[in-house]
Specification:
alpha+beta; six-stranded mixed sheet
C-alpha cells in the first residue's frame, strides 16, 4: 500500500484572487469525465499523458477520493517504454507517495550519453528522446530531469550530463525547440525546460550561475510571446505551463505577465467547469491556478500549542500577515528570495473545532488558507524519551494537563521524587532525571505527581542490561566515480539501541592524510556523508565508515574507488630526432595509440612510437606493425615533430596497495623490460619496491643479489639512457628500462 497525502484537510491550497467555485467546478468536471477504467482522455492517443497530469493535479486537491486512488492503480499497472510517459508516470506515482526507485532506474537506462572534447577537458552529455535510443530532445530531457528530481534520484553524473545537454540546446534568443530539427521555438517546450532547471537549482545539486542565467534568457523569451489578451500561443495549455514557469520563480510572482496569464485562464473556463472540454487543459489550468501552498504543523492541538506555519509560492521578500480564526494578524513573517516563509504562533483562546489559518502577501496580494483543529484540553498526560536505556541514561519527562504553576514530583521505580519541577501557566512541564540502579533490570514505572491538583499519571521505562552489540553497517560500495565531482556515500546503519554517531573516512591515493566527515541521518536508518569534489581526484581513493552507539564501535570494510576523467602530461620535449621514454599512468578508456596520441599527428610523419618486446623494437605503423595498447605498466619510446603533451581520458590505477608488473627474464643474457610508472605522482625507487618470485618477496638489493634483476633502473632522455639513483624517484609519464634475469613480478607501492 502507498501513502496518499491528505492535501484537502492537512494542507489547503493557496488561492490567488479568484473564485473558489471555479476550482471546485473544474475538479467536479474531471471526476464526471473519468473513463470506466479510471483513466482520462482518449486511450488511443494521449490518454496516458492526460491521466498522469490529471492524477498529479488531483492528488494535491482531492487526495483521498476512491476513484483517484483507482487512477493511481491504473497508472501503476500500465507498462510502457516511452520516455515522456515514463517520466510522467514517475511524477504521478511519486505524488501518490509510492516507491518509484525501479522506474527511475529503468528511465535512466534509456539515456543516450557521450563525451565531447573542448580543450583541455572532456564534457559529459546525456539526453533522452521519445523512446529508448531515439535522438534526444529538449522536451523529453526536461521532463526526465523533473521526474528524477521529484523522485530524489541520486546520480550526480547523470544530472551533469542532462544539464550540459539542455544548456547546449538553448537558442540564441533564449528558447528551446520541440526537437533539434524544428525551425522555431516552442512555448510549451521552453516552459517545461525552465520548470526543470528551476527544480534543479532548488534541489541544490548544482549552483553554477550559468543555470540561472539560462533560466532568465528563457523567461525573457517567454515574455515576448505573450498575446495582448494575456495568453501564450492562444491556447490554455501553453498559457498554463508558461504561468507555471513564471510561478516557479519568486521574482516573477508579482509580474504583470503572470497576472495577465492567470486572468486569461480564469476568463476562459467553460460554464460546465472545464477548459476546452478536455481533461489535459482542465488539469493543467487547475495546476496553474493552485500553485502555492500553506502547511501548518501540527494540524491540531490545545490552547497554548505552538504551531509552525510554512508557506511557498508568494512574492519574494514581501511581508506576510497570518490571521487565525478570530485573531487578525496573530503573527507576521518575511518571505525569502524564493517566495517562501516559515513562522510560528501560539494557539490563543478560541472556540474548539476547525479554525481558519490565512496567510496574505501584502505586496503580491496572494493569499492562502488552511485549517487547524483546536481540541479540548485533555486530562493530564506524560511522555518519556527515551523509553529504554541503561543505568546512567538521561530521561526526559514531558507533561501537560496539570494545574498552572504547580510543583510536579517525578517517581522512578523504587526511588521516590527522583526529580522535581514546576509547570508553566498552561499546565505543561519538562523534567530530566538519570536512571539509577533498581532492584532488577526490566520494566520500571515512571509517575508524575501534581502536588496541588493531585493528578498522577504513569509511564514505563525499560532498563536494559549492559550493551555489547555494536552497530551494523550496510553499504553498496562505489567502485567507480567521476573525478572533480562530490562523492556522496550512503549507508544503512542500525543498532539494537541507537546509533550515536557515524563518520566517513577516506584517503586519497598516494597520500597518508585521512579525511573525515560526520555522516548525517537523512531518514530512518539511512546516513549520508559527502567527500568534496576537491578530494575526488584522478588518484582514486579508499574510504570506510565507522559507527558507534556510544559504547560499542564498528568499522566497515575499506573500499577502493577508482576515479575517471581526463589527465594531461605536460609537454614531453620529445622533439625529433631525439627520443624519450614515456608511459601513461592511468588506464585509458580507449588504449589504442591512435586514440591516446590523438593530438600528435600522423604516425611516422609527425610522430614515431616504438616498443621493445624483449628481442626487437616494434615501430607503430599500422597496419604493417603496431605496438601494444597503452597500459600503465608499459614503457614506450616516442619522438615527434613538435614538443607536445598527452591528453587522455581514463580511469585511475589502484590507489592502495601495490601495482603489479610482470617481468620477463632472459636466458642466459639479461632481458630489457620497458616498464611504466603507474601513478600520477612520484614514487620512491627504494626498498619499498618489491620483487616476487614464487613465495619469496625481496627488495631491489636482495633481488639483485639473488640474481633476479640488475639494479640499474634507467630511462631514455634524448641523448642516451640515464640511470635512476638508488634510492631515488620514479616519476609519472616516464618510461623506464629494467634488466631482468629471471621471470618475476615487480610490486610498486601506491605511496607518494
Amino acid at each position: 500500500m502507498f501513502k496518499i497525502r491528505l492535501a484537502l484537510i492537512l494542507s489547503m491550497l493557496l488561492i490567488p484572487t479568484f473564485s473558489y467555485a471555479s476550482i471546485d467546478d473544474g475538479v467536479r468536471w474531471l471526476y464526471e469525465h473519468q473513463n470506466s477504467d479510471y483513466s482520462w482522455g482518449n486511450p488511443e492517443t494521449t490518454g496516458f499523458r492526460d491521466t498522469c497530469v490529471v492524477t498529479e493535479t488531483l492528488l494535491d486537491l482531492e487526495g483521498t477520493k476512491t476513484n483517484l486512488l483507482r487512477a493511481v492503480d491504473y497508472i501503476e499497472a500500465t507498462e510502457l517504454n516511452v520516455c515522456d510517459y515514463l517520466a510522467r508516470k514517475i511524477l504521478a506515482l511519486n505524488s501518490a507517495g509510492m516507491d518509484v526507485g525501479t522506474l527511475t532506474d529503468i528511465l535512466v537506462s534509456y539515456k543516450i550519453d557521450w563525451y565531447k572534447y573542448v580543450y583541455p577537458y572532456y564534457y559529459y552529455y546525456a539526453s533522452f528522446g521519445y523512446q529508448k535510443d531515439d535522438l534526444g530532445t529538449p522536451l523529453d530531457t526536461g521532463l526526465v530531469l523533473s521526474a528524477l528530481l521529484s523522485a530524489n534520484y541520486r546520480g550526480t553524473q547523470t544530472y551533469a550530463g542532462i544539464t550540459n545537454f539542455i544548456l547546449s540546446t538553448q537558442n540564441y534568443y533564449g528558447y528551446w525547440r520541440f526537437s533539434l530539427f524544428d525551425a522555431s521555438g516552442s512555448i510549451y517546450c521552453t516552459s517545461q525546460v525552465i520548470l526543470a532547471l528551476v527544480q534543479l537549482l532548488d534541489a541544490g545539486i548544482f549552483t553554477n550561475p550559468i543555470i540561472k542565467q539560462t533560466i532568465n534568457y528563457g523567461t525573457n523569451w517567454l515574455k515576448t510571446q505573450q498575446q495582448p489578451d494575456g495568453s501564450f500561443g492562444n491556447t490554455i495549455y501553453e498559457t498554463a505551463i508558461a504561468a507555471l514557469a513564471f510561478l516557479s520563480q519568486p521574482e516573477h510572482k508579482a509580474s504583470q505577465n503572470l497576472k495577465d496569464a492567470l486572468n486569461y485562464i480564469r476568463n476562459n473556463q467553460q460554464p460546465d467547469g472545464s477548459w476546452n472540454n478536455t481533461a489535459y487543459d482542465t488539469a493543467i489550468a487547475l495546476k496553474a491556478l493552485t500553485r502555492q501552498r500553506l502547511i501548518v504543523s501540527p494540524i491540531s492541538g490545545t490552547i497554548g500549542t505552538i504551531v509552525k506555519v510554512t508557506g511557498t509560492g508568494f512574492g519574494q521578500t514581501e511581508t506576510i500577515r497570518v490571521d487565525f480564526g478570530q485573531s487578525p494578524t496573530i503573527t507576521t513573517a518575511m518571505t525569502n528570495a524564493r517566495g517562501s516563509f516559515t513562522t510560528n504562533f501560539t494557539i490563543d483562546s478560541q472556540q474548539a473545532g476547525m479554525t481558519t489559518v490565512k496567510s496574505t502577501g501584502l505586496n503580491s496580494g496572494l493569499s492562502g488558507t488552511t485549517y487547524f483543529n483546536i481540541i479540548f484540553k485533555p486530562q493530564a498526560s506524560i511522555t518519556i524519551s527515551p523509553t529504554s536505556g541503561y543505568v546512567g541514561s538521561i530521561v526526559t519527562v514531558a507533561g501537560e494537563g496539570y494545574g498552572q504553576t504547580e510543583t510536579i514530583a517525578i517517581d522512578f521505580g523504587v526511588t521516590p521524587t527522583i526529580a522535581v519541577t514546576m509547570t508553566d501557566n498552561l499546565g505543561q512541564f519538562k523534567a530530566v532525571f538519570t536512571v539509577d540502579t533498581q532492584a532488577e533490570c526490566g520494566t520500571v514505572t515512571v509517575s508524575a505527581r501534581g502536588l496541588t491538583s493531585g493528578a498522577r499519571v504513569f509511564a514505563y521505562f525499560i532498563i536494559i542490561e549492559e550493551d555489547t552489540i555494536p552497530p551494523i553497517i550496510l553499504h553498496t560500495p562505489i567502485i567507480y566515480a567521476p573525478a572533480q565531482l562530490p562523492m556522496i556515500i550512503m549507508a544503512t546503519i542500525t543498532d539494537n539501541i541507537k546509533v550515536e554517531q557515524a563518520s566517513l573516512y577516506w584517503k586519497i591515493g598516494g597520500t597518508k592524510t585521512i579525511g573525515e566527515v560526520q555522516m548525517v541521518n537523512i531518514g530512518t536508518d539511512l546516513y549520508q556523508g559527502t567527500i568534496s569534489a576537491a578530494e575526488v581526484t584522478m588518484r582514486g581513493l579508499q574510504y570506510y565508515i565507522f559507527a558507534t552507539d556510544g559504547k560499542n564501535g564498528t568499522s566497515s570494510t575499506a573500499w577502493t574507488t577508482y576515479t575517471y576523467g581526463t589527465v594531461t602530461s605536460g609537454r614531453l620535449g620529445a622533439v625529433k630526432p631525439k627520443w624519450k621514454s614515456i608511459s601513461v599512468p592511468i588506464h585509458p578508456h580507449n588504449p589504442d595509440p591512435a586514440n591516446v596520441l590523438w593530438n600528435w599527428g600522423k604516425f611516422e610523419k609527425n610522430v614515431s612510437l616504438k616498443y621493445f618486446d624483449g628481442t626487437n623494437w616494434i615501430i607503430h605503423n599500422p597496419p604493417a606493425s603496431r605496438v601494444p595498447d597503452f597500459a600503465p605498466e608499459l614503457g614506450y619510446m616516442i619522438s615527434a615533430d613538435k614538443n607536445r603533451e598527452i591528453i587522455v581520458c581514463g580511469t585511475s590505477t589502484n590507489p592502495v596497495g601495490y601495482h603489479v608488473i610482470k617481468l620477463t627474464g632472459g636466458s642466459p643474457a639479461k632481458r630489457q623490460n620497458h616498464i611504466g610508472q603507474p601513478y600520477l605522482y612520484p614514487v620512491a625507487w627504494d626498498k619499498n619496491v618489491k620483487f616476487k618470485r614464487g613465495n619469496k618477496i625481496l627488495n631491489p638489493v636482495e633481488a639483485q643479489k639473488k640474481g633476479w634483476i640488475k639494479k640499474s633502473l634507467s630511462y631514455y632522455a634524448g641523448s642516451g639512457y640515464k640511470k635512476v639513483p638508488y634510492p631515488g624517484v620514479m616519476y609519472p609519464w616516464v618510461g623506464y628500462v629494467l634488466p631482468v634475469i629471471l621471470d618475476c613480478e615487480m610490486l610498486i607501492p601506491a605511496e607518494e
